[in-house]
Structures are given as C-alpha cells and as structure tokens.
Amino acid sequence: MDLDLRKLRYFAAVAEHRHFGRAAEQLYIAQPVLSRQIRAFEQELGYTLFERTTRSVELTAAGAQLHKEAERILAAVAAAVQRVRDADRGVQRLVVAFSPGLHVSDAIKAFMSRHPDVETDVVPARWWEQDAPLRDGRAHVGYLRRPFDDSGLHTVPIGREPKVACVPAAHLLACRQELTRADLDGERMLDVPRRRTSSLEEKFELIASGHGIALVPLSVARSYSRPDLVHLPVTDAPQVETCLAVAADRREKPLRDFLRIATATLRGG
C-alpha cells in the first residue's frame, strides 16, 4: 500500500499529544475530522494504533512502533523537500547535528567566516539514536557523543568528558563532594536499557521527583542545571568520547572544509 503522508502527520500529532483535541488544534482541523482520518488510516494499515477510552488515548504496540517510524519518515521527507528547494534556488547548505549538551556554534562561526556563501543549519540528535540525522538525510555531519552506531560513518575523535551522577537535592548522597560507582549500588538508575526516557527534560524531571538517579555527561548536566538537582563527580566512571561523524561516502568540499575547521576549533586548537 502507499503511505498517506497527510494521515501519517495526523497520526504523529495525536501520538505526540495523546489527545485528539490538542492534536486537532495543532493541525488546525476539526476534531471529528481528525478522528475520522485516524480511523481511516487504521483501516488502511489493518492495525489498531490507539487504545481509546473516555479519559485517555494510548498507543498500542503497533502504534508505538509507527510513532518511531513516523518521526524518521517525516523528518526525512522534510529534509528532502529542503534539498529540492535549495537546488531550485542554487543554495549550498550544510546541516550539523549535535548531541545534547555539546556546543558546535564556535565551529559553525569559524566555518561561516570562510564560507559565507554556504548556508548553515543545525538539528538536534536524540541521545538514543544520535546517528539517525546522518542516515535519514537531515544532517551532513554530526558532533556526537559515543556510543552510537558508527557503521558506514567516518569519525574524527574530538575529546573526552567525565560522567557525573545526577541526584535529587534532598538525596542522602547530595551532600557528598564526589562518588564512586560502588556508592550507587542499590540505587535505582534511569539509564539505558532499564528505562528509556523520550527526552533529557523528562529524565531530569523523573530524577527530581524521586524516581531514580542517572549518570550523565558533564556537559549535559551543565546545560540542564536546575536547583532541585545536584551533579556529583563519579571518580571511577569511564569518560565519554566526543567526535565528529559523517557518512563515509560523502566527499563534498564544503563538508571536508567543515570537518577540518571544526576539528581544530572543537579541540581548542
């Protein structure tokens, strides 16, 4: 069957909001119209995507999988449309993906000063699929933090950073100056694969409300500082490697120049 992108966008909005009314408002359509379109989409696919009650809308197993796929599909389509638009305008564009907490702005500014004719843009790389923007066409290069799937990618090491334990300010460990991994034995950890949160904001909200502790890179902790959380060095935790990554078969000159400039800039040299 042919996938109806309009219905896929409608589905993605409902999946994001878990509410037909709010999704309809976002889409600027009437709620009954949205409901009919989602039911038609389910009939076309042959699967139930939502469990509906009078109080809630939840994704089925098929719906949860389609939600993941829809995000990638819609992002790839949007990137393809942008490339077509750029080709029509004769525009060169370089898009940089970046992992949470990593700052690539200095590298972009250095590149723009030497290539003012190239338009630049950025796209966030979600922590559980950092390589996705490079594979679906949304980005040309990524400033990423390992681990990620680097198959088919050329990577350039940039540096390393420590991990810190993020704990509620009222936690017994919060008064310590530093920790070891042994100090965390018996604590509920919110790290992969035990519980995957959809965003870092969600993870920190769970930590602040007492649902557990997480080990996060120092740059992430600094970027999401809040008064109800404490970040403590974990002296024996392995450091995290940061790197630039690009598809191994990409050879465009602006991309090669960005790699060279960004490597020098991000390494501090």
Q: What is the topology?
A:
Elements: H1 5-17, H2 20-27, H3 31-45, E1 50-52, E2 57-59, H4 61-89, E3 92-98, H5 105-114, E4 118-124, H6 132-135, E5 141-145, E6 153-161, E7 163-168, H7 200-208, E8 214-217, H8 218-223, E9 229-233, E10 240-247, H9 253-266
Parallel strand pairs: 3-4, 3-5
Antiparallel strand pairs: 1-2, 5-10, 6-10, 7-8, 7-9
Domain HTH lysR-type: 3-60
Protein name: LysR family transcriptional regulator
Family: Belongs to the LysR transcriptional regulatory family.
Roughly what fraction of the amino acids lie in strands?
Answer: 15-25%
Number of helices: 9
Question: Can you name the CATH architecture of the largest domain?
Answer: 3-Layer(aba) Sandwich
According to CATH, what is the topology of the largest domain? D-Maltodextrin-Binding Protein, domain 2
Find the CATH superfamily of the largest domain. Periplasmic binding protein-like II
Based on Cα principal axes, name the global outline: flat
Number of strands: 10
Keywords: DNA-binding, Transcription, Transcription regulation
Family: Belongs to the LysR transcriptional regulatory family.
Pfam families: HTH_1, LysR_substrate
Organism: Streptomyces cacaoi
Structural summary, described in words:
The protein has helices spanning 5-17, 20-27, 31-45, 61-89, 105-114, 132-135, 200-208, 218-223, 253-266, and strands at 50-52, 57-59, 92-98, 118-124, 141-145, 153-161, 163-168, 214-217, 229-233, 240-247. The chain has 269 residues and is α+β, with helices and mostly antiparallel strands. It folds into three domains: 5-70, Winged helix-like DNA-binding domain superfamily/Winged helix DNA-binding domain (Arc Repressor Mutant, subunit A); 91-160 and 240-266, 3-Layer(aba) Sandwich (D-Maltodextrin-Binding Protein, domain 2); 163-233, 3-Layer(aba) Sandwich (D-Maltodextrin-Binding Protein, domain 2), CATH 3.40.190.10. Helix 5 crosses helix 9 (253-266). The longest helix is centred in the first third of the chain and has 29 residues, at 61-89. It is flat. 28% of the residues are buried. It holds the Pfam family LysR_substrate. Residues 3-60 form the HTH lysR-type domain. This is LysR family transcriptional regulator. Belongs to the LysR transcriptional regulatory family. InterPro entries: LysR_HTH_N, LysR_subst-bd, WH-like_DNA-bd_sf, WH_DNA-bd_sf.
